Amino acid sequence: MSLVCAICNEVPEHPCISPVSNHVFERRLIEKYIAENGTDPMNGQPLSEEQLVDIKVTHPIRPKAPSATSIPAILKSLQDEWDAVMLHSFTLRQQLQTTRQELSHALYQHDAACRVIARLNKEVTAAREALATLKPQAGLVAPQAVPASQPAAAGAGGEPMEISEQVGMTPEIIQKLQDKATILTTERKKRGKTVPEELVRAEDLSKYRQVASHAGLHSASVPGILSLDVCPSDTSKVLTGGADKNVVVFDKNEEQIVATLKGHAKKVTSVIYHPSQSVVFSASPDATIRVWSVTGGNCIQVVRAHEAGVTGLSLHATGDYLLSSSEDQYWAFSDIQTGRVLTKVTDESAGCALTCAQFHPDGLIFGTGTADSQIKIWDLKERTNVANFPGHSGPVTSIAFSENGYYLATGAQDSSVKLWDLRKLKNFKTISLDNNYEVKSLVFDQSGTYLAVGGSDIRVYICKQWSEVLNFTDHTGLVTGVSFGENAKFLTSAGMDRSLRFYSL
């Protein structure tokens, strides 16, 4: 509704109101009236300029003076409007033509780029095939034909040729593995069934709560920590692998990042901290295993043991060899010093991708999980499948051997954790979890007293009774890794919410 000046009966440009008569006036006119009379023009009461109150309104648009008062004037007005519409239409057509030309040019460039990419992909595929045909097949053995060692080939002049990528399991390596297993078995027998005095008791463990949370280790643009490990010799050092393709070493005590290791072409799904050296290992769906120097912050070795994504990684007790599993259906045993694959084996009868791998504490046998819910136990020296544990449904997501050497814990996409007795080769306990519970990580503490389960939440069970002593639901995403500190003094976890969390008293 428009305001109208009480003096001139027109819409005021600068309206104001008189508190004496409550009428609206054009400020210019009322000021002139007050200067002459000193009163309100409507009721004659005294009024000053200071009493006037301005009214804030949008600036009025004065209507055009009526011009279309005759038929010729109306026709001219319509002609002007028509001309304006035609000019606007012509301008739009010009802009449309320009846009079409730019789009055509962009499509041509895109098509050319696609052709270049296709040609490069073809060349890369051809190069890979050529490389595959050049690789010697010395270490690529199947379970049914397993030579004990591979003799070095000699060149024409009697000199040894370059060692192949798979060099075979030599008697020296097998003896080294056997000696280490004998030492570990002897130590375990000495310890017997005694629990370390420094180990946190179950009643204290049940009082654990979250004491720290760190969310800035990995990129926020590709969120998620996919793997976790704690340095066995210095449990303040924590290792994580992320969806952002990076490996991060974090100091728990200093609460700061020690090193960020970059080099993988895809996400990092497995990480391991070397127990005695400042070295870490990582694996990725980019089909590589990388060995990193923490102090140098660089990659010192790339192991190319597989033709498809690496799904599992485990370090042998000697600290010199790596076990890896892959979607290419093979497991591989590699030397971390040279980056060479010593042997590579598949179960041809199964024909199924491997999803995880873990060494037994003695290092002479190990387990692998498969995409068709099988757990396979392998003899490393003979490179043969010695036992199978069926019972899960869905791909196996995690396996863990207890330090006592007798128990194996396995998890799959069936919302359950199964415990197996390696002496009797049977399932003696199944922990049924909630419906749709996703098991992503299983780990025993160093004494074999507690079992931690990471997935939809975090749960800790005490072995033998297999009763739950702890449950954490602090993560807002799926928990992908869980690990114990020394003597279970703390618990750490990582998840898809990009956070690394610590729990203790």
Provide the helix percentage.
Answer: 10-25%
Give the amount of beta strand, in percent.
Answer: 25-35%
Largest sheet: 4 strands, antiparallel
Number of β-strand runs: 31
Structural class determined from secondary elements: alpha+beta
- Quick check: average pLDDT? 87
Report a brief summary of the structure.
With 505 residues, this protein is an alpha+beta fold. 20% of the residues lie in helices and 34% in strands. It has helices at 27-37, 71-134, 171-191, 202-205, and strands spanning 15-17, 24-26, 53-54, 209-214, 225-230, 237-242, 246-251, 256-262, 270-273, 279-283, 289-293, 298-303, 310-315, 321-326, 330-335, 341-346, 354-359, 365-370, 375-379, 384-389, 396-401, 407-412, 416-421, 426-432, 439-444, 450-455, 458-462, 467-472, 479-484, 491-495, 500-504.
Keywords:
alpha+beta; 4 helices; 4-stranded antiparallel sheet; 20% helix; 505 residues; single chain; 31 strands
Protein architecture, described:
With 505 residues, the chain is an alpha+beta fold. The protein contains four helices and 31 strands. It has helices at 27-37, 71-134, 171-191, 202-205, and strands at 15-17, 24-26, 53-54, 209-214, 225-230, 237-242, 246-251, 256-262, 270-273, 279-283, 289-293, 298-303, 310-315, 321-326, 330-335, 341-346, 354-359, 365-370, 375-379, 384-389, 396-401, 407-412, 416-421, 426-432, 439-444, 450-455, 458-462, 467-472, 479-484, 491-495, 500-504. It has a four-stranded antiparallel sheet with strand order 4-31-30-29, with no helix packed on it. Strands 5-6-7-8 form a four-stranded antiparallel sheet, with no helix packed on it. The protein starts with 14 loop residues before the first strand and ends with a strand. Mean pLDDT is 87; it is low at 136-165.
